[in-house]
TrEMBL record:
Keyword Signal appears in the UniProt entry: no
SMART domains referenced in this protein's UniProt entry, alphabetically: Pumilio
Name of the molecule in the record: Pumilio homology domain family member 3
Residue windows of the Pumilio repeats: 47-82, 83-119, 120-155, 191-226, 227-262, 263-298, 299-342
Matching InterPro entries: ARM-like (IPR011989), ARM-type_fold (IPR016024), PUM-HD (IPR033133), Pumilio_RNA-bd (IPR033712), Pumilio_RNA-bd_rpt (IPR001313)
Keywords, ordered alphabetically: Cytoplasm, Repeat, RNA-binding
Keyword Repeat among record annotations: yes
Family statement: Belongs to the PUF3 family.
Region of interest: Disordered: 1-25
Biological process according to GO: nuclear-transcribed mRNA catabolic process, deadenylation-dependent decay
Annotated Gly residues bias: 1-15
Organism from which the protein derives: Dichomitus squalens
Domain (PUM-HD) ranges: 27-370
Location of this chain's protein in the cell: Cytoplasm
Length: 410
């Protein structure tokens, strides 16, 4: 019995005796036919020896092997490895069902067995990392092999690291490397210098940068952070860049946090009404030191000109600014909190009148305006609820504003 590649690149078998055909036209062995048909039989891993490759490429067979590998004996595991490695390993790594079997082999195999599996990937790591299913196997390998094998993955990917970072599949591999490989072996991070703005505003690059800031030491991230600070104002208003800025606000050093908040100061009211920058405003209010937080809240309470219109009304009406105002109400302290409440409360009546009058003159077809009116009603309701809790002296930690709108999760 010898396995062969079936039509479409999937693994298949040809055997004597009874056989069937898969949906893609490939010949299916009698053993797999029986496995799929006979659900009452108690199947064991030994029952499919000689058919491991074919079963790995079948939806039901793959799931069966995955379950059995978790409790397989050393002899059974060795047979599975012998049937797959080296001839069919890379083929299964790129298969929609087979990749899960190979992942389990990395998870439960011995060090020697995993080394054999890694050897089949040499020279093909880049291609696997850019492939939908292969990238999952590469990630699992990086997580479960030893440092010596990890070096091979880093060496093969380093010349193409920026290509991987910007790839829908490859970026996950680079993130996994940053998480699991010792920093001194990640010289490829130097390739990110000069491209921080480009990466920060990229849907995948922004994720990789966040992993760098999370796992790498200051000597590797400092040049990247220094470069990032040059573009903070533009990154705040970017659909992906705002997440990088938020990450630094939450996890960065006090110095980095202070530099970002300094850029936000003086722009708070405008940024609070921006779809993406409003998220940064909320994060800044939560992470700022007490003095900086007071300054930011003062800014959203204080008219630009004496006797000028209150910025609070504008924030309450705005579909993004209202979330920043809610956050300010939850983090303000002491006298400033009382002052903020006293300034917000008079606007609630006007907001209700505005919402009611706004709704009367709108037709059902004017969907955007209808949504705006409903949004105002919701804002009033939420702010009133917050004020009621504050008035009852509830601790700030018990009052949680509604989450602001987000379009991307890092």
């Amino acid at each position: 019995m010898y396995p062969h590649a079936g039509p479409g690149g999937g693994p298949g078998f040809v055997h004597g005796g009874r056989h069937g055909r898969r949906g893609d036209g490939a010949v299916r062995s009698a053993q797999l036919d029986e496995f799929r048909a006979n659900k009452s039989r108690k199947w064991e891993l030994r029952d499919i020896f000689g058919y491991i490759v074919e079963f790995s490429g079948d939806q039901h067979g793959s799931r069966f092997i995955q379950q059995k590998l978790e409790s397989a004996s050393s002899e059974e595991m060795e047979i599975v490895f012998d049937e797959i490695v080296p001839q069919y390993a890379v083929q299964l790594m790129q298969d929609v069902f087979g990749n899960y079997v190979v992942q389990k082999m990395f998870e439960y195999g011995t060090a020697a067995q995993k080394a054999r599996l890694v050897s089949t990937m040499e020279g093909q790591v880049l291609g696997l990392s850019l492939q939908m299913y292969g990238c999952r196997v590469v990630q699992k390998a990086i997580e479960y092999v030893g440092p010596d094998q990890q070096v091979m993955f880093v060496q093969e990917l380093s010349p193409s690291v920026l290509r991987c970072v910007k790839d829908a599949n490859g970026n996950h591999v680079i993130q996994k490397i940053i998480e699991h490989v010792v920093p001194e072996r990640l010289a490829f991070v130097n390739a990110f210098r000069g491209s921080v703005y480009e990466l920060s505003t990229h849907p995948y690059g922004c994720r990789v940068l966040q992993r760098c800031f999370e796992y790498l030491p200051d000597e590797q991230t400092r040049p990247l952070l220094d470069e990032l600070h040059k573009y903070v104002s533009n990154l705040m208003i970017d659909q992906f860049g705002n997440y990088v800025v938020q990450f630094v606000l939450e996890h960065g050093t006090p110095q980095d946090r202070a530099m970002i908040i300094a850029k936000l100061t003086g722009q708070m009211n405008n940024m609070a009404k921006h779809k993406f920058a409003s998220n940064v405003c909320e994060k800044a209010l939560v992470t700022a030191d007490p003095d900086s937080r007071r300054q930011l809240i003062d800014e959203i309470m204080t008219p630009k000109q004496q006797d000028g219109p209150s910025p609070l009304m504008s924030l309450m009406k705005d579909s993004f600014g209202n979330y920043v105002l809610q956050r300010a109400l939850t983090v303000a302290e002491g006298e400033q909190k009382e002052q903020l409440i006293s300034k917000v409360r008079p606007h609630l009546v006007n907001m209700r009148r505005y919402s009611s009058a706004y709704s009367k003159h709108l037709s059902a077809s004017e969907c955007n305006f209808v949504r705006s009116a409903r949004h105002i009603e919701l804002t009033v309701h939420v702010v009133e609820r917050l004020l009621e809790k504050f008035s009852s002296n509830a601790p700030s930690s018990e009052v949680t504003p509604v989450e602001g709108p987000t379009d991307f999760t890092s």
